Amino acid sequence: LSHRPGKRDPDIGVENDEVAAHLARVGLHRRVAPGPIPGTVRLVPLTERHPRVTVIVPTAGRGRPRPLVTACLAALDRTEGVELDVIVVVDTAYTGDPEDLLVGRHHPTRLLERPPGPFDFAAACNRGLVEAGGDAVLLLNDDVEALDPLWLARMVAHLDDPGVGVVGARLVYPDHTLQHIGVVIDDARPLHPFVGASLDHPGPWGLLRHPREVVAVTGACLLARRTDLVALGGLSREFPLSFNDTDLCLKMLAAGRRVVVEPDAVCIHHESASRAPQITSAEWDAWIARWGAVEDPWYHPAYHRPRHEDRRLDADHLPPSTPPDPRRATVRDTVIRPRVHRSPAHAAARAGRPRADTRVRMPELTPADGADAPGPGPGHAEDPALGEDPVALRLEILRLRDVAAGAAARTAVLEDRVHELEDELERFEGLMEAHQALIARHEALLAHPVLRAQRLLGRVVGRVSRSGGRR
């Protein structure tokens, strides 16, 4: 809800009451407060208890300055308002003693060794996911440093809404200019919009100052329920470095959840503002093959196409000095030229052929626990070599356990309801018996005066008959 910037509406209090009444109707526990821009409102969570969060921090170990990792963990130590534990997934070639990362930690922190081979962000996150014990899971780059103690509490509050599946944050460069506040998809390319905007810039219609829905957020700071992540199979191994976060968000959208970004959760992303990330052709081709032309309902390229220097694909997990494996694919520079790639749908349209629907179909997640997808996990159906990946197998086991636990919980609820109905039926039958007895009693009471009247009438008739006979 917004008004013309700078104009105070005298009826804003009435409108706040209407918003509060709407929130009560839909079951969202929020307090309506003035927004950051005149004429707008902000919804403040009323709940004081948030789900426990497991933070997964993959670190490459090489090519990443160690102070960044320690700064990331120190910022987590300063985090307030949320119960959390931290899992650091380290490389086997980690420089120094990784046990030093555990010294002086405020929150429970443990180390896991990531799967062997070249750095694989998706595999490292999945490795942490199978060990996560929190109700929610935060995927966090090791070069991300939170600026405010309540940043995570603001993100977690969105999960009070069962329709929200993924929550992202505002990421800024060390000079506090904008690096990420949600992803837009333009011509099949996931892009960061508004790169370089100042921290206090409101953006058009206050887009940069208000929580809003987006098509995807970066995995550099991505929050979701553990059950949802497990049900979707974690991050796809087809995208070891890039597109895994956007792929996950699109799956979440297809499964019936929403993706939101919280601008008041501000973190520094120590990624070079001038570095051009790189994406392998194998990942790019896999992205196009899976999703094709993805329509972004919250973005129109005719409104604000990113400038040439801002056309950077969403590639936030690349170790700066780790070269891509030449055995896998060639390198594609992500400071891309206009229309560097036409998706299959666009090519079909230009050739006059009907556009093929290349969207991935996902079963809906259950509102309660997100773990009721029948059969093979939707995130695993894409991987024919499931048996070759022990982490994927463990995720599938966790998913099936969640399904079983959800089914058991629902069965218990149904059994309790059956017992309640049986008790209600027994009470009703008792009431019916009492009612029948009461009716019989009333009939007896009504019949007693009638019988007396009949006997009295018989006596009168008899006397009359006798007296008439004597005459």
Detailed description of the structure:
With 471 residues, the protein is of the alpha/beta class. Among the domains are: 26 residues, no CATH class; 264 residues, Spore Coat Polysaccharide Biosynthesis Protein SpsA, Chain A. It contains 9 helices and 16 strands. The strands form 4 sheets. Strands 3, 4, 5, 6, 7, 8, 9, 12, 13 and 14 form a 10-stranded mixed beta sheet that branches. The radius of gyration is 33 Å and the shape is elongated. The termini are far apart. 38% of the residues are buried.
CATH class of the domain at 47-310: Alpha Beta
CATH topology of the domain at 47-310: Spore Coat Polysaccharide Biosynthesis Protein SpsA, Chain A
Query: What is the general shape?
Result: elongated
Overall pLDDT score: 75
* Rg: 33 Å
The largest sheet, given as strand count, sense and whether it forms a barrel, is: 10 strands, mixed
Second rung of CATH, namely the architecture of the domain at 47-310? Alpha-Beta Complex
N/C terminus separation: 105 Å
- Uncertain runs are 308-350, 352-364, 367-386
SS field, number of helical segments: 9
Helix proportion range: 25-40%
The overall strand count is 16
Tell me the β content: 15-25%
Compressed to H and E, one letter per element, the order equals HEEEHEEHEEHEEEEEEHHEEHEHH
Class computed from helices, strands and strand pairing:
alpha/beta
